[in-house]
Design brief:
The complex is a heterodimer of chains A (about 270) and B (about 650).
Chain A (H helix, E strand, L loop, with lengths): L1 H22 L2 H4 L13 E4 L5 H19 L4 E3 L4 H9 L5 E4 L1 H11 L2 E6 L5 E6 L14 E4 L5 H12 L8 E4 L3 H10 L4 E5 H10 L4 E6 L7 E4 L5 H12 L4 E3 L6 H12 L1
Parallel strand pairs in A: 1-2, 1-3, 6-7, 6-8
Antiparallel strand pairs in A: 3-10, 4-10, 4-11, 5-8, 5-9
Helix pairs in contact in A: 4-5, 5-10, 6-10
Chain B lengths: L5 H57 L5 H9 L4 E8 L4 E4 L18 E10 L2 E11 L1 H51 L14 H28 L9 H18 L3 E9 L1 H8 L1 H17 L6 E6 L2 E6 L4 H17 L1 E4 L2 E4 L1 E9 L6 H17 L5 E3 L5 H21 L3 E10 L8 E9 L5 E2 L1 H10 L3 H18 L7 E4 L2 H5 L1 H14 L6 E6 H6 L1 H14 L2 E7 L7 H5 L4 E4 L1 H6 L4 H17 L2 E4 L5 H10 L3 E2 L8 E2 L4
Parallel strand pairs in B: 10-11, 13-15, 15-16, 16-17, 17-18, 18-19, 19-20
Antiparallel strand pairs in B: 1-2, 1-4, 3-4, 5-7, 5-10, 6-7, 8-9, 12-13, 12-20, 12-21, 13-14
The chains are: A alpha/beta (about 270), B alpha/beta (about 650).
Chain lengths: ~270, ~650
């Protein structure tokens, strides 16, 4: 008989649920949030805006500060390329990250990362040529080879705005994407490309390494800088601690998601293209 | 004794030395090679580790471990690299040349003879970020080492075997030559001195072989010389007594076994002494040498002539019957008789007495043959010298000689057992026979049956066989002892001496020693020798008389006149008494000539300043006549019969 057969099964299910609900400790039910005391891992990733060993040298000190602050080992990470970094971000692999504004808009924000602080100094982008290049102005770029970054980077966005303002569309020049701005600088020096687009801080570093080699022919208006983001599952308390710590540093200010709307606008422009 | 081959010794020694040296060289080279390989690998390890560390570090920062795989796989293609993996900060393998390990814990390093681990820890300011582990294989190195070692051992062993064979070959060459030397030495030891070593070349062994040959040659020469000396007479070059005895033995055996006839001639030169005494020993030696040649020429090739000593020779005539032996002996005698010996311009003749002894199936032994031949020779001399006497069965002369020989042990026994006794006879003054007389002491031998044997019976044998000097010494000792022990001593004691004693220098020493030891007055002793002895041994007699008289002793010449000697000798011999031969006294009553001779001798004796003594005075009539002639002393049964001297 079906009724006779269903009764024991139903009773069993109910009993099991009751036993489990009574005996399962509350702490067991809680999931360990990133960089919490209970978690076993905490990573701090920095987007690869320069070579990896330089990044390590600079940012492992910050990771160490985080470790002390959170009383957990915070491991520094990066990626070999912007694309790979973006992939990790989209996969929520990092707990804390310093990321470019473009990638924040294209990868981090959609993945749920929460911004907590940003570099106070606005970020500008420049179009740069060799000192001896006949290219004098942005209009001269037409028909030339332009070295650009990945399409989701701030540099790409900034450069695109500059070019659009000069009525230059992607078809007017030959677009040559590079994995990093350093790679582009080398290609420019070698004559492989005629123009490179750099974030201004990066160009400053390049000029230190290769003085009198390049010159800027155009610079964008100011845009929000790089942003510290946290994993969406990080506890508010941890996030607050981190934010307070970052804000104690000079040149770091609070970041809000809407601060990066200009980039979202650029993305929109790109999408319309 | 087990002979161990020298070549095996050499080969084994070389092989052993080689083994040691090869082991050392192999160990040294292989160790050095292995060490260098290890150093090279260590450098390689370091380079690989550094390269992989660099990319691993980046990978740890980016967590892009998939990018490492190509590096790890490429590294693992190196035969020296067995396994590479990278562990993160949790010690979890995140990349590996063997993907099976990815996700597992880092493998604990296990010691293994074929592997070793290199780990490189990577860290930054955040702390340790991971570690690179590389497992290097030394199997290839070990295999290469073993392969190299095996090759080295193979080459080494092959070389050793080749060298061992070469050593054996060379050892064989060397020992073959040494064997030749050993064989030569064996032959030398067995007496083969004609063998020569045949070793070519100019090395040490060849030199040794030459030296051995030279030594063998010289040894052979010396041996031949010694052998010749052992069996030959050094003066004449003839065979010596030893050789003659050897050949006689052979001849005796053949006579007994095959009934062969041989003969032994025993030669004794007559008058040889005259040459020797008057011209010296050099002349005597020259005479013997020349006579050896003379005699040899008379013999057949198969005959053996030997010098037996002094002037005696022996000749063995093999396969020769008695008649032929006598003919040869006569030939020898004549050749000696005819021989004229020239010495310093003077010519001498000598004779030879030869005894012939046939050697037949019945001959007893060597000693008997030699003895009989000697007696036959003596018999020849007895016959008047320079004659030949053939020894025969029932040979009267030889039997007499045998009798004499039989006296030898009896005389020895008498000397040893004090069975020589003294008798004495008074020698009285002619003019006053009652005056204290002189005494002549006479020796007698007491035989086994206590019979008294007169000296005429045994003195001949004693003289013949050299025992007379011993008897003379005994008599001197007995007389001196008597004179020491009794008050009944004569004014003068007469003691007879033989020719041999006066010729024996040691005898004079004996007399002098005895007189000194006994402390008797030497003037109470008067020694006597016969006229014949004095004349036959004139020089020795003269010297002895002079020496004895210097001691204080008196001297008398006995039996004067019996030898028909010259009165001249009386001028030369300084004596005290001259005893006129008794035969003249015995016959003087019937023969006026004898009485005249006595008177003449007495007169000459007196003229010479000596005193005369008449012997054999057996009757009062003899005494009366001698008193009338004027002799000084008389001796005989009319005065005193022989009387045993009683000792204390």
């Amino acid at each position: 008989m079906p009724g006779f057969q269903l009764l024991p099964t139903t009773i069993l299910r109910i009993l099991t649920t009751l036993i489990l609900s009574v005996s399962w400790p509350a702490s067991w039910a809680e999931q360990a949030t990133p960089c919490s005391e209970a978690s076993t891992r905490c990573t701090f990733a920095v987007f690869p805006h320069t070579n990896i060993r330089q990044l390590e040298e600079t940012y492992t000190a910050i990771a160490e500060d985080f470790s002390i602050l959170l009383d957990i080992n915070v491991r520094f990470l990066t990626a070999s390329s912007m694309q790979r970094f973006a992939d990790h971000v989209e996969a929520l692999d990092y707990d804390i990250a310093l990321i470019g504004p473009g990638q924040y808009v294209t990868s981090a924000a959609p993945a749920g990362y929460i911004p907590i602080a940003k570099v106070a100094k606005p970020l500008t982008y420049e179009l740069v040529v060799n000192n001896k290049s006949p290219i004098k102005s942005i209009a001269d770029i037409k028909g030339k080879r332009l070295g650009t970054m990945a399409q989701y980077t701030g540099t790409y966005f900034g450069t695109t705005i500059l070019l659009q303002e000069a009525d230059l569309n992607p078809g007017d020049y030959t677009d040559r994407p590079f994995r990093s701005q350093g790679s582009c600088a080398q290609a420019l020096a070698a004559g492989i490309v005629d123009v490179c687009s750099f974030a201004s801080p990066i160009f400053s570093l390049i000029k230190l390494q290769l003085p009198n080699k390049f010159r800027s022919i155009a610079i964008s208006k100011e845009n929000p800088g790089s942003v510290y983001i946290t994993h969406p599952e990080m506890s508010p308390e941890t996030r607050r601690i981190l934010q307070e710590h970052l804000l104690e540093s000079s040149g770091i200010i609070v970041a809000e998601d809407q601060d990066f709307d200009p980039y979202r606008q650029l993305e929109h422009i790109k999408a319309t293209h | 004794m087990v002979v161990r081959s020298l070549k095996l010794h050499i080969a084994a020694t070389i092989f052993l030395l080689e083994l040691i040296m090869l082991s050392l060289v192999l160990w040294q080279t292989q160790s050095a090679s292995f060490e260098k390989s290890e150093q090279a690998l260590e450098k390689s390890d370091k380079v690989i580790s550094e390269l992989l560390s660099e990319v691993s570090h980046t990978a740890l920062l980016t967590t892009e471990f998939d990018t490492l795989q190509p590096f790890f796989l490429r590294a693992a293609e190196n035969p020296h690299v067995d396994l590479v993996y990278l562990a993160d900060h949790r010690d979890i393998i995140v990349a590996s040349s063997d993907t099976r390990f990815i996700g597992s814990s880092a493998i604990a390093a296990v010691e293994h003879k074929d592997f070793y681990w290199r780990s490189t820890s990577m860290s930054n300011a955040s702390g340790e970020i991971g570690a690179l582990y590389i497992r290097f294989s030394i199997r290839e190195l070990n295999d290469a080492f073993l392969s190299s070692l095996q090759l080295g051992i193979t080459i080494g062993l092959s070389s050793m075997l080749i060298i061992a064979f070469v050593s054996l070959f060379m050892g064989t060459i060397l020992t073959r030559r040494l064997k030749s030397l050993t064989e030569h030495a064996r032959k030398m030891a067995s007496g083969d001195l004609d063998h020569r070593v045949d070793i070519s070349g100019n090395d040490e062994i060849a030199e040794l072989g030459d030296t051995l040959n030279t030594m063998t040659y010289k040894l052979g020469s010396s041996f031949s010389q010694m052998e010749h000396m052992a069996y030959h007479d050094g003066l004449t070059g003839l065979a010596n007594r030893h050789e003659l005895h050897k050949r006689l033995n052979t001849a005796l055996k053949s006579a007994r076994r095959f009934d062969q006839l041989h003969a032994l001639l025993y030669l004794d030169l007559d008058q040889f002494k005259v040459v020797n005494d008057t011209c010296g020993h050099d002349a005597g030696d020259a005479l013997l040498t020349q006579l050896a040649t003379v005699l040899t020429k008379q013999l057949r090739p198969q005959d053996t002539i030997a010098r037996l000593g002094g002037d005696e020779f022996g000749v063995l005539l093999e396969n020769c019957h008695s008649e032929e032996a006598m003919r040869i002996a006569e030939k020898l005698r004549i050749s000696v008789e005819k021989f004229r010996f020239n010495w310093s311009g003077k010519f001498f003749t000598v004779g030879v007495s030869i005894g012939v002894m046939p050697i037949t199936i019945n001959s007893q032994n060597l000693k008997q043959i030699l003895s009989t031949a000697d007696m036959a020779c003596y018999a020849a001399k007895e016959k008047g010298r320079n004659t030949v006497h053939l020894a025969k069965e029932d040979d009267e002369a030889l039997n007499l000689r045998v009798d004499e020989m039989n006296w030898v042990p009896r005389i020895h026994a008498a000397l040893e057992q004090d069975r020589l006794v003294l008798y004495f006879q008074h020698i009285a003054k002619t003019t006053n026979p009652d005056q204290r007389p002189f005494r002549e002491y006479l020796v007698r031998l007491i035989d086994d049956n206590n019979g008294v044997i007169l000296p005429s019976v045994f003195l001949t044998a004693a003289e013949r066989f050299g025992l007379i000097t011993l008897i003379d010494r005994k008599v001197v000792q007995l007389v001196i002892k008597h004179l020491q022990q009794t008050q009944d001593t004569p004014e003068l004691a007469f003691i007879n001496l033989s020719a041999k004693s006066i010729m024996d220098a040691a005898f004079y020493d004996f007399v002098a020693r005895e007189l000194k030891r006994s402390r008797i007055n030497p003037e109470s002793i008067c020694f006597e020798i016969t006229e014949t002895v004095a004349i036959d041994n004139f020089d020795a007699a003269l010297e002895f008389i002079q020496k004895v008289r210097r001691l204080g002793c008196k001297f008398a010449l006995d039996d004067f006149g019996s030898g028909m000697s010259s009165f001249t000798y009386l001028k030369m011999l300084t004596v005290d008494f001259v005893k006129i031969d008794g035969s003249f006294v015995l016959n003087m009553l019937d023969n006026k000539v004898d009485e005249s001779i006595i008177a003449a001798i007495n007169q000459i004796v007196h003229e010479a300043g000596f005193l005369s003594i008449g012997e054999f005075v057996e009757t009062e009539e003899h005494l009366k006549h001698l008193q009338e002639i004027g002799l000084d002393y008389v001796q005989g049964y009319a005065i005193h019969t022989h009387e045993l001297l009683k000792t204390a």
